[in-house]
Amino acid sequence: MPRQRITIKDHTAEANLFARRAFIAMIIVGVMLTVLISNLYYLQVTRHEDYQTRSNGNRIKVLPVAPNRGLIYDRNGTLLAENRPVFSLEVVPEDVEDLDATLAQLQQLLNISDEEIADFHKNLKRQRRFKPVSLRNRLQPTEVAIFSANQHKFSGVSVEARLTRHYPYGDVLTHVLGYVARINKKDLQKLAEADLEANYAATHDIGKQGVEKYHEARLHGEVGYQEVEVNSKGRIIRTLNFSPPVPGEDVVLNIDVRLQMEIQQALEGYRGSVVALDPRSGGVLALYSNPSYDPNLFVHGISSKNYRALLDSRNRPLINRATQGQYPPASTVKPLLALAGLDAGVITPDTSMMDYGRYQLKNVNHVWRDWQPWGHGKVNVTKAIEVSCDTFFYDLAYRLGIDRMNEAMTPFGFGDYTGIDLYEESDGNMPSRGWKRARFNQPWYIGDTIPVGIGQSFWTATPLQLAQAISILANRGEHFIPQIRRGSIVNDEVIIDEPKRRPPIVLQNESNWDVVLDAMYGTVNREHGGARKAFQGTTYISAGKTGTAQLFSIGQDEEYEEENVAEHLRDNAMYVGYAPYDDPEIVVAVALENAGGGGKNAAPIARRVMDYYFKDRTDMVQRDATQNGPEDSVN
Amino acid sequence: MLRTKLEPNKQSLLNKIHIDGYLLLGLLALMGVGLVTIYAAGGQDWHLIQRQLIRLGVAMAVMLTLAQIPPMAYQRLSIYFYVVGVLMLVGVLAFGVVGKGAQRWLDLGVFRFQPSEIMKLAVPMMVAWYIARFNLPPRTYHIFVGFVLVSVPTLLIAKQPDLGTSLLIASSGIFVLFLAGMRWKLIGIIAGLGSAFVPIMWFYLMQDYQKQRVITFMNPESDPLGAGYHIIQSKIAIGSGGLEGKGWLQGTQSQLEFLPERHTDFIFAVFSEEFGLIGVLGLLAIYAFIITRGLLIAMRAQEAYTKLLAGSITLTFFVYVFVNMGMVSGILPVVGVPLPLVSYGGTSMVTLLAGFGILMAISTQKRLLSR
């Protein structure tokens, strides 16, 4: 074979050629390995830290953990707002083998409506497959039990617990506590402005009203963080680090829930409100507005039907009448005006006049009438307060003039926010020349001045403002800002806050306090006193002042409804008072819309409040025994 | 002979059963690394290990069987192998089974079969047989014929499309021509023609997904969650492994499933993450050892045919390693080439060990006559 011969001949040369080529190949292999190795060196050594960081960024996620909201107690330690677990049925779509079959079975087991299924499908589209989607939000305990017994049949379905707010006293404290509800877009915007977004990263609800809103910062607490390792699908594999959230402050209120309940019963059937303050600190013992509503409805998202009903109700349950209802104070402010007159020197305790039931000014056609058509006869300041003589105060208003009245009443808090720890507050109106000019572009007329003497003529005040003013009076000038929150629980100990003050009222003559307070004593305790009947036989001695305001309903924008006209035209019944007379512990203000006379309707409610407050007290002296306690000066 | 003196006596036992001890050692080391890494990459699944062990067993049996066949038999069978292989490739294009967007399998009723795997051996055998018929270095005409022999199956496979395999087959043929002593001038011309071929490839042969791979390779960060995801996560895995690695089973990129195709094509990233640059250098040392041994066998082979075939098989093996590591570490575009003997997977493993079986046959079966 010729080929073979040639092959044999060239064998060595071929072998050498091959060896050279193999050697070159070896060198090329070496070069390429060097390229590989230098690239790996670059990745693993030069840029190691960079890739280490990115690797950790891949696997480590920081999840916020919501803090438990602080609890709210009343002054006696009764729990007013608590956190209760609610159970929701959640489905992780990825872990469910046959979603439709599972849903059908669950529907049968737990009576889930087609609507809920439709909602579920809607939410399902928005979520990633491995994230839980809620099928039913508030499971009843029986439903939890039924599901738990059958859980083994449903992989990927579980019952999850979350804490939500619950108000065990329901509508008793609505206007005090307010409520929490789901954080909405507006809340988020506010949180962003306050740079608090991070702190609310895991929080579900936020205070919307009342104490829950005002003390949100205390109650919320600090968000915690859970550092978790996740896989590429975002599922948590394990927890690496946990910095627990700091729970919110447990808050103690000045409110006495039993007193609050007593007031609710007393106001049954009325549109009105009651405020009870502790004049020694400004503490709000009770603050109730009727009608009320159940705040728990809002926590879980109120149905639009229920919300409409509340919103459209003629009785306006959503309004806090105690702090937002602006009523003409009527005769309840007569003691304050008397004090202004005495201290300005326009009257003395002995100044007296004859009241024939009408008041007229020279050259003015208008006649101002007393509530008692035939008048009260000879009255001095004490009697004028006790019998609530209008004529005396028309004259006093005339003598003082609007400027001095405004100047004297402003320190009592009229026309300004009290500073109570609620955002739902109105400032009322203490009229003045400047106010009228600004409001109506009209000058102040003398005809405007006269009715200010009996707490009317543009003068409006909230029941809380009235209570505050009477509190200042009972304190002889000392001014505490009304506070609902009493303090907080720190390390199982109640830390009571210092009362908040405003500058006290200092009179030219301190004895003027006595004149006015004595007249208020007389209103309740003396023969012709306007509130005598209502307070007969109390175990404590109180002082007060009635008021009956001409129609002025809080809803100024209300539509005219014929069938309600009669009721709407009726007077508002007002009462302010305090007890015990010699060492005041409680101030009560009552305002009832369209209820009629204050002495007849409002005073008995104030008495019921005071009776309840003193019911267990043995240190109170019988009224009869101290009939002559204060100077019995009938002039 | 000097050479026989150097070969230790204990090898003669292995020699009798036609096993090359050095190669076997290197291959076993690689398989060991592979099993350890598959265990980590596959989420500690014993099932995977068992299946890989069965595959390794089958492949080893094939290797040992092929090692018993005398090299002359391969030489004689080359042309039949090649012709049958090409016919089957045509068959694949005509009646093949589609899987993973490519038409690679021939369904023979009993089992599915990938004819391109046969070509990995048939092409170098055919080219070596053809070139070895003439004096070395080959003439230009022979080189041309050699290129035609390479191109036909390469293009058929590229059409399937299977870029990785066609690349491996083309290189296995070209290696034969190179080792045969193809002139440098000609190499230059062909390299020039080859670069001219690139646009033709791009516009006529490459599928959209392959083009996407190349685009992604140029700039993986342009699409970090889409096409670039593989390569970015792979580089993060390698880079975060550092010098010493995160430790076995401690690689977060792989254990937490950020890394795609962990136990198959991207197993090198898992290995790099858990064993670091030190481990990688060790792995490369094993590969270098096997390649050196292979080239040594080629140089010691007696016939031109066996020299060329052994050299080509060895260098193609290196191409596997280089292309896989290159794509996983981001210096080459992603083409589906496994890390030889380490990646989990069947067909290519059998072909690879079949190649080593032929190498062993060449290494251990020598005709005394030619010396």
From TrEMBL, chain A:
The chain crosses the membrane at residues 21-43. Keywords: Carboxypeptidase, Cell inner membrane, Cell membrane, Cell shape, Cell wall biogenesis/degradation, Hydrolase, Membrane, Metal-binding, Peptidoglycan synthesis, Protease, Transmembrane, Transmembrane helix, Zinc. Pathway: Cell wall biogenesis; peptidoglycan biosynthesis. The active site is at residue 331. Its EC number is 3.4.16.4. HAMAP family: MrdA_transpept. This is Peptidoglycan D,D-transpeptidase MrdA. It comes from Fluctibacter halophilus. The lineage of its organism: Bacteria, Pseudomonadati, Pseudomonadota, Gammaproteobacteria, Alteromonadales.
UniProtKB/TrEMBL annotation, chain B:
It comes from the Bacteria. Pathway: Cell wall biogenesis; peptidoglycan biosynthesis. It is a multi-pass membrane protein. Coiled coil: none annotated. The chain crosses the membrane at residues 21-42, 48-67, 79-98, 118-134, 141-157, 163-180, 187-205, 275-296, 308-335, 341-362. Pfam families: FTSW_RODA_SPOVE. Its main location: membrane. Its EC number is 2.4.99.28. The keyword Lipoprotein does not apply. It is found in: Cell inner membrane; Membrane. Keywords: Cell inner membrane, Cell membrane, Cell shape, Cell wall biogenesis/degradation, Glycosyltransferase, Membrane, Peptidoglycan synthesis, Transferase, Transmembrane, Transmembrane helix. It catalyses: [GlcNAc-(1->4)-Mur2Ac(oyl-L-Ala-gamma-D-Glu-L-Lys-D-Ala-D-Ala)](n)-di-trans,octa-cis-undecaprenyl diphosphate + beta-D-GlcNAc-(1->4)-Mur2Ac(oyl-L-Ala-gamma-D-Glu-L-Lys-D-Ala-D-Ala)-di-trans,octa-cis-undecaprenyl diphosphate = [GlcNAc-(1->4)-Mur2Ac(oyl-L-Ala-gamma-D-Glu-L-Lys-D-Ala-D-Ala)](n+1)-di-trans,octa-cis-undecaprenyl diphosphate + di-trans,octa-cis-undecaprenyl diphosphate + H(+). HAMAP family: PGT_RodA. Peptidoglycan polymerase that is essential for cell wall elongation. Belongs to the SEDS family. MrdB/RodA subfamily. This is Peptidoglycan glycosyltransferase MrdB. It comes from Fluctibacter halophilus. The gene is rodA.
